[in-house]
């Protein structure tokens, strides 16, 4: 299949690994920003085949994972109202809020529907003018344009029973926050290719220069990731810190001007809280004043909901690359995809889910030393069992 098999060619992969091995002379810590890249890395064992000392740190680029707990609680409250049809991509339904998730609210009688596009939700609003239809608008720069376009269409068509519960986040401020952290170990970034397909490259040179950190825009297939790593370690070894585009088949310097124009019309930049991490200035979008009437938070008066993260879940440390998922005491035992404590175990892009799904249960590491891994393997049965759990998901935000 084009763009799958040709970007998984083992001979080309060998050559890239050889080039990386020949380049590296000392340890380096690279962060892959996107959860989709994390899944590809873990699934193909790329991290295990790199030279000793080259570490891949899993970044916060999973939209489901970083959606704040209080936003999930707002979704639960809105969805439970009898006059509401609450629409979402499938992977948000099992994300735990303070007490329950959207699946539970649905089982209690709420009209919660999985859709494949925000435009499906707008279509439902047109079919049910007597009901309020809310779409859960979650995600990075990748999912924001279609959500913006849907609100634009709702306003243009005069569909007033549609609204958006917005939790959009932006990558560059997150990179800035990671680099400003006193515990930061990241020395280079594999930036998220699909984000740059929309936004282009213009936001990154200033970050690379100010933090003296290489940023290589990278795709998602195995060869894409190896090429991103190869270019990154070459820069690190040469003492350089530039922005490079290793995903030119999808990313142009200026991204998608049409998508960016739609974003700047419908949204405005705002501070945003990232689940497990905290508030990052200017790291999100909210509806602009022109479209504020379509903001579900205001329409349903849920702006005041405030909640605390469960203490046991260490997803904030996972999302900042401070621990690996199997270093969390609950991993694979009290926390599994079927009974998740945190969003990183639910999402199709979550690092905890990747470790559970792709064989990292029985691996040596801190969790093994405590005997957790053996229990986890016994609990899950196998990666196939985990995959079956994951097959219950229907649609995804990322
Ligand atoms: S394994 Fe579960 S409890 Fe631990 S950090 Fe991941 S999601 Fe949270």
- CATH topology of the largest domain: the name is Rossmann fold
Helix-strand string: HEHHEHHEHEHEHEHEHHEHEHEEHHHHHH
Describe the oligomeric state of these chains in a short phrase. single chain
Total tally of structural domains: 2
Poorly predicted ranges: 363-394
CATH superfamily of the largest domain: HypD, alpha/beta domain 2
What structural class should be given to the helix and strand makeup?
alpha/beta
Q: Give the CATH architecture of the largest domain.
A: 3-Layer(aba) Sandwich
Strand content: 15-25%
Number of helices, counting only DSSP H or I runs of 4 residues or more: 19
Integer average pLDDT: 88
Overall, the morphology is globular
End-to-end span in angstroms?
22 Å
Q: What is the helical fraction, as a range of percent?
A: 40-55%
For the largest beta sheet, what order do the strands appear in spatially?
Answer: 4-3-5-6-11-10
CATH structural class of the largest domain: Alpha Beta
- Sheet having the most strands: 6 strands, mixed
User: How many E-type strands?
Assistant: 11
Radius of gyration: 21 Å
In this entry the ligands are: iron/sulfur cluster
How would you explain this protein's 3D organization?
The protein is of the alpha/beta class. The chain folds into 2 domains: 311 residues, 3-Layer(aba) Sandwich (Rossmann fold), CATH 3.40.50.11740; 76 residues, no CATH class. The chain has 19 helices and 11 strands. The strands form 2 sheets. A 6-stranded mixed sheet has the order 4-3-5-6-11-10, with helices on both faces. The chain has a 5-stranded parallel sheet with strand order 2-1-7-8-9, sandwiched between helices. α8 packs across α13. It starts with 9 loop residues before the first helix and ends in an 8-residue tail after the last helix. About 8% of the residues have low confidence. Bound molecules: iron/sulfur cluster (SF4). The site of iron/sulfur cluster (SF4) has 16 residues, from α15. It comes from Streptomyces hebeiensis. Belongs to the HypD family. InterPro entries: Hyd_form_HypD, HypD_1, HypD_2_sf. Keywords: Iron, Metal-binding. This is Hydrogenase formation protein HypD.
């Amino acid at each position: 299949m084009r763009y799958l098999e040709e970007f998984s060619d083992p001979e080309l992969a060998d050559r890239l690994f050889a080039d990386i091995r020949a380049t590296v002379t000392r340890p380096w810590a690279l962060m892959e920003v996107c959860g989709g890249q994390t899944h590809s890395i873990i699934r193909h064992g790329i991290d295990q085949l790199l030279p000793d000392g080259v570490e891949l740190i899993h970044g916060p680029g999973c939209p489901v994972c970083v959606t704040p707990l209080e936003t999930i609680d707002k979704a639960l409250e809105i969805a439970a109202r009898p006059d509401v049809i609450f629409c979402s991509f499938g992977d948000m339904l099992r994300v735990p809020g303070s007490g329950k998730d959207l699946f539970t609210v649905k089982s209690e009688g709420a009209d919660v529907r999985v859709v494949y596009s925000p435009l499906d939700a707008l279509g439902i609003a047109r079919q049910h003018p007597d009901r309020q239809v809310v779409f859960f608008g979650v995600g990075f720069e990748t999912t924001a344009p279609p959500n913006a376009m849907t609100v634009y269409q709702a306003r243009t068509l005069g569909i007033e029973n549609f609204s958006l519960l917005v939790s959009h986040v932006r990558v560059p401020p997150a990179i800035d926050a990671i680099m400003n952290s006193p515990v930061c170990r990241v020395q280079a970034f594999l930036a998220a290719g699909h984000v740059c397909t929309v936004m282009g490259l213009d936001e990154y040179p200033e970050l690379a220069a100010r933090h003296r950190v290489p940023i290589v825009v990278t795709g998602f297939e195995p060869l894409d990731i190896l090429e991103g790593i190869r270019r990154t370690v070459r820069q690190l070894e040469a003492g350089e810190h530039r922005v490079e585009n290793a995903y030119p088949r999808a990313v142009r310097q200026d991204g998608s001007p049409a998508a960016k124009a739609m974003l700047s019309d419908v949204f405005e930049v705002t501070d945003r809280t990232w689940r497990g991490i905290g508030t990052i200035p200017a790291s999100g979008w909210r509806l602009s004043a022109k479209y504020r009437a379509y903001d579900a938070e205001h329409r349903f008066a849920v702006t005041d909901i405030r909640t605390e993260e469960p203490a046991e879940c260490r997803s904030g440390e996972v999302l900042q690359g401070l621990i690996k998922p199997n270093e969390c005491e609950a991993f694979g035992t009290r926390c599994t995809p079927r009974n998740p404590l945190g969003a990183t175990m639910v999402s199709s892009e979550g690092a905890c889910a990747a470790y559970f799904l792709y064989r990292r249960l029985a691996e040596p590491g801190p969790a093994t030393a405590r005997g957790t891994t053996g229990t986890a393997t016994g609990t899950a049965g196998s990666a196939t069992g985990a995959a079956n759990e994951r097959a219950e998901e229907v649609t995804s935000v990322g």
